[in-house]
Amino acid sequence: MTSPAELINKAIFFHQRGNLGEAEAIYKKVLHVHAKNFDALHMLGIINAQRGLFDEAEKLVRKALSVDSKIAQCFHNYGTILAKLQRFEEAVSNYNKAIKLAPNHAPIYADLGIALNILKRYEEEIAAYDKILSLEPNFTGVEGARLYAKMHLCDWNNFDTECSHLISSVRNGKGNTLPFQILAIPSTSNDQLRCAKQHIANNFLLSEKPIWQGERYNHKRIRVAYLSADFRQHAGAYLMAGLFEQHDRSRFEIIGVSFGVDDRSEIRKRLVVAFDEFYDVRTKSDQQVAKLLHDLQIDIAIDRSGYTQGYKIRHFCMSSSADSGELSRLPQHNGDAVHRLHHR
């Protein structure tokens, strides 16, 4: 008879190779006999998170932690799931629990820093980044994020020196900052483009099996999807609302796709009504969003977020629409992601 440990190893084999269905079936088989098996609960939770089913993922990983509360990676994963659910205070608490168990694991501090930034706890965010830099000086994105947090505090100590070092890092091909953060410091358009290209190349590989296979749709009206994390009380929402409302509905069908928080504000309500169809996809995976755009037969997909908070690029890399582009309120580059999508 196959032991639970052997079954878990088999499931992980499938899981690591992207065969989520086979892995899920084995994890569930283990749980059918051993309902409190930590590994099965934890990894089944991860599969649900990968599929964008964060509510179910949260329940499973929370149950795993009730079985064993001494695994740093589990607390780390739980914190990330909570962050996906916009529960940032709880996410911070669980990241800190993970740090107590693994104080020298840099990725935990990176995710902690992101959550602290959203909570505007900049001093703590900087402390998290200082720890990362003491462990891994060129950890992706941290140097720029740290400098950006200092700017929020109006801390100008060593500003010129740190800006020069960051620009030098970008020019030397290091991913020490995100594309949005480099806009806040003295930098040339070439530096900004170089930074964006590096970010795309390092983090967003094009799908080997893109969902969109080149088909063209013969709709009576062109279907345009606007994707954004800012369909809420946000400057971009106020600036764009009129544009959405004034589209020529005899020629265009306008669809809103939101992966940001629903703040139930008046501008949110106005935006929902402004679109012919509106989808809240904040709990969906990138694969699910890409499939949604394909199923809706979108002719043109427009990214409204660029590299601002809550941005998503990966669903474009899955080639989910006939044409993709960027419409942003900031003079920023998306690198060559959009260009490559045009020439599949």
Detailed description of the structure:
56% of the residues lie in helices and 8% in strands. With 344 residues, the chain is of the alpha/beta class. Helix 13 packs parallel to helix 14. 41% of the residues are buried.
Helix and strand layout, with pairings?
Layout lengths: L3 H13 L3 H14 L4 H13 L3 H14 L4 H13 L3 H14 L4 H13 L3 H14 L6 H11 L6 H13 L7 H4 L6 H15 L18 E7 L6 H11 L6 E7 L7 H9 L2 E4 L5 H10 L4 E4 L10 H4 L5 E4 L10 H6 L2
Parallel strand pairs: 1-2, 1-4, 2-3, 4-5
Task: Give a brief description.
With 344 residues, the protein is an alpha/beta fold. Helix content is 56%, strand content 8%.
Count the DSSP helices: 17
- Output mean pLDDT: 86
Strands, count: 5
**Which class of secondary structure composition applies to the elements?**
alpha/beta
Low-confidence segments, given as residue ranges, are 317-333, 335-344
Helix content: 55-70%
Q: N-to-C SSE series? A: HHHHHHHHHHHHEHEHEHEHEH
Beta-strand content estimate:
5-15%
Radius of gyration, in angstroms, nearest whole number: 22 Å
